[in-house]
Design goal:
This protein has about 650 residues and is an alpha/beta fold. It has 27 helices and 23 strands. Strands 2-7-4-5-21-20-19-22-23 form a nine-stranded mixed beta sheet, with helices on one face. A five-stranded antiparallel beta sheet has the order 1-8-3-6-9. It has a five-stranded parallel beta sheet with strand order 14-13-12-15-16, covered by helices on one side. InterPro entries: ABC_transptr_periplasmic_BD (IPR002491), Bact_iron-sidero_bind (IPR051313), Homeodomain-like_sf (IPR009057), HTH_AraC (IPR018060), HTH_AraC-typ_CS (IPR018062).
Length: about 650
């Protein structure tokens, strides 16, 4: 945001100081997930701590300043005794205001922006903050007036230093904040207006952003969260519908039932009965030795999305397509047997009759086997799904490269799949792709999907699965699991299991692993014993450090296939990446650094900073830039077999070029 715009907005708002606190946190003490009730400045006086503001991590030392907007989550872990001031304030646009001022506030809103920096001249700020807190404590009317004046002086001094030092505030991720707020407060009465008010934005602006990212409205998402929680309570407790309604944010059982049926397709009572019946039937059908362990199921930890063993029971209509085909074939088989029996000559010989019965029984068994051979059962996160044994018309919103490598040409895919970077580089015949239908973005166009009449649909986003199931048999196979992704080879194996092509998948994996072993020999010695490797992505003036496991953008190729050693930070990341601030970057960097996205416009500020230039890896020239931002992306965006082959070649050539 331009300084002049920032100042313009500060001049057009009414500022109310909500609170001023002087706090101290002892070494090792932690402040967890405090949701800011208003916009806030945090000014550290002494000590140091790790501070998380939403998804950004900052190392805060003496005289550091942080700013966050209303609704952001603040967490502090003191590594030494941390003494700080926190100033909570509210900025309201003064009325009447020009239209362009209101539009600028909605677009930029500096009072919600996030930034952290160490001012070059901290003492003038310290003097004002200390006096500000003293005046606030005295609580006299004249003191309150002085508080406003001091706060304005503090802001003036801070803005001057902020822009002199070239610090660019980060816009908050309003959608992530809205999702977090909804999931945290779903049990309370909530409307779009109250969510927008909590996040200091307009309802229209929030709705547009939410729709673009989540493909649904905030209120529809709220209803889904409430329905999911109600379903858990139905199955895990004996609470009444009224009790559950009050717990998940509905005034009465009637309102709950009406909303529940909208999202789950069943009334709460029927939902519970069907789930209990299904669970009881599974237990009855289970061998005695397995039943013993099923009874102990609750002692195990809940599986993540990575594990196929954890699944939800399928909705009633899920298997309809498969059952109809089987039933029709069985009817035809029975009719054939009856017609054959009627046309056969009468035989009173007991021996002959027994032989005929045996033949009929044998034919019936063979017919059933033939029917069963035409379908297969696949385990998914949403339950067992009966799929065609050899599907001919496959549609998928992800995984096109995986399908093609298995010899399966889909009839329709998501738009992006048809423009992936590997297509031009792999040499795959374009004429074979010409007949694949473009089905738009997430979710795939249901009308176009229906016209294609797919016999199998693969969906990678859970909220779209119900829609796809109305068109045809659908398998849910997530691409991302939270902020992590499964290993590329595991992904390929999972795709192959759906089609019974494990042999073909393992054949390619064996060849690929052999190629990776040869690549490791070529680059041996470039990363010396005891040295470590880091991978960072620079995008939109933000820094993301990729984890040793669960990362993307070439992380599996670098860490798993080439076996380059990650740092301890990368090894200990719980998710696939961490979003960090520039000041903590040295803690995350190894002896060699791979940088993805260096061509991004926002990368220059980071890659030309003094802190970056001072990194040992940068000084030694052990930095490897890769990845481009063309319309088609690059081979590191996806992790299908074609992309993985290209990734391996790219990284190896990059390292060998530095070796020379």
């Amino acid at each position: 945001m331009k300084l002049n715009d920032h100042i313009l907005l500060w001049n057009h708002v009414f500022i109310q100081v909500m609170d001023v606190r002087h706090k101290k946190i002892e070494e090792g003490e932690e402040l967890r997930t405090y949701r800011l009730p208003a916009s806030a400045f945090l000014y550290a006086v002494r000590g140091n701590a790790r501070v998380r503001l939403d998804n950004s991590i900052h190392r805060v030392e003496r005289f550091h300043v942080l700013h966050g907007g209303k609704g952001m989550c603040l967490s502090i872990l003191a590594e030494e005794v941390l003494e700080y001031y926190i100033i909570l304030y509210k900025a309201t646009l003064a009325l009447p205001s020009r239209k362009e001022i209101a539009q600028l506030l909605e677009k930029e809103n500096p009072f919600q922006n996030q930034y952290a920096f160490a001012p070059h001249y901290p003492l003038p700020l310290y003097d004002k903050v200390k006096l500000l807190e003293q005046e606030w404590r005295e609580a006299s009317r004249l003191g309150k007036l002085h508080v406003k004046a001091l706060f304005q002086q503090f802001v003036y001094e801070l803005l001057q230093q902020l822009y002199r030092q070239g610090i660019e505030p980060l816009k908050p991720d309003l959608v992530s904040q809205a999702v977090a707020y909804i999931r945290e407060h779903f049990s309370r009465p909530m409307a779009l207006e109250s969510i927008a008010e909590e996040l200091e934005c307009s309802t229209g602006h929030l709705s547009r952003l939410f729709k673009n990212k989540m493909h649904t409205s905030p209120i529809h998402y709220l209803g889904q969260v409430r329905a999911d929680r109600a379903a858990e309570l139905l199955m895990q407790t004996d609470a009444t519908l009224q009790e559950i309604a009050e717990r998940v944010g509905y005034p009465d059982a009637h309102s709950l039932s009406r909303s529940f049926k909208k999202y789950k397709g069943l009334s709460p009572v029927r939902f519970k009965k069907e789930r209990e019946h299904h669970a009881q039937k599974q237990d009855q059908d289970m061998p005695q030795t397995m039943l013993k362990y099923a009874l102990q199921r609750t002692s195990f930890a809940r599986y993540t999305d990575i594990d196929y063993q954890y699944r939800y029971n399928a909705e009633g209509d899920l298997f309809m397509h498969g059952r109809v085909k089987i039933t029709a074939m069985m009817i035809m088989l029975c009719l054939s047997l009856m017609l054959g029996a009627c046309s056969a000559p009468t035989n009173t010989n007991g021996s002959s009759q027994t032989k005929a019965n045996h033949t009929a029984t044998s034919s019936n068994s063979d017919g059933q086997a033939a029917v069963q051979a035409q379908t297969r059962t696949v385990k998914t996160l949403k339950g067992d799904v009966e799929v065609p044994a050899n599907p001919k018309r496959v549609a998928s919103d992800q995984y096109m490269g995986h399908l093609l490598k298995l010899g399966i040409i889909p009839v329709g895919v998501r738009s992006f799949m048809l423009n992936e970077a590997w297509i031009d580089q792999s040499g795959y015949p374009k004429e074979k792709l010409a007949g694949i239908k473009d089905l738009g973005e997430f979710p795939m166009d249901l009308e176009e999907l229906t016209v294609l009449q797919p016999d199998l649909i693969i969906g990678s986003i859970e909220k779209n699965i119900d829609s796809y199931q109305k068109v045809g048999t659908t398998v849910f196979l997530p691409y991302w699991e939270g902020e992590s992704t499964a290993g590329p080879l595991d992904k390929f194996r999972r795709i192959s299991e759906i089609f019974g092509k494990q042999k073909e998948a393992e054949q390619w994996i064996t060849e690929y692993e052999k190629k990776a072993a040869e690549a490791r020999t070529k680059i041996q010695g470039i990363v010396k014993n005891g040295e470590t490797v880091s991978i960072v992505q620079v995008a939109n003036k933000s820094i993301y450090v990729l984890a040793a496991k669960g990362g993307n953008y070439g992380s599996p190729t670098i860490y798993q296939m080439l076996k380059l050693p990650p740092t301890k930070k990368a090894l200990n990341m719980k998710e696939g990446f961490e979003n960090i601030s520039l000041e903590v970057l040295p803690e995350y960097m190894g002896d060699h650094i791979f940088v993805y996205g260096s061509e991004d416009e926002g990368a220059n500020q980071i890659l030309h900073s003094e802190l970056w230039k001072g990194l040992p890896a940068v000084k030694k020239g052990q930095v490897y830039m890769y990845g481009s931002f063309s319309d088609k992306g690059d081979e590191f965006v996806m992790e299908d077999p074609y992309s993985l082959e290209l990734q391996l070649d790219t990284i190896v050539n990059l390292l060998l070029a530095h070796k020379k």
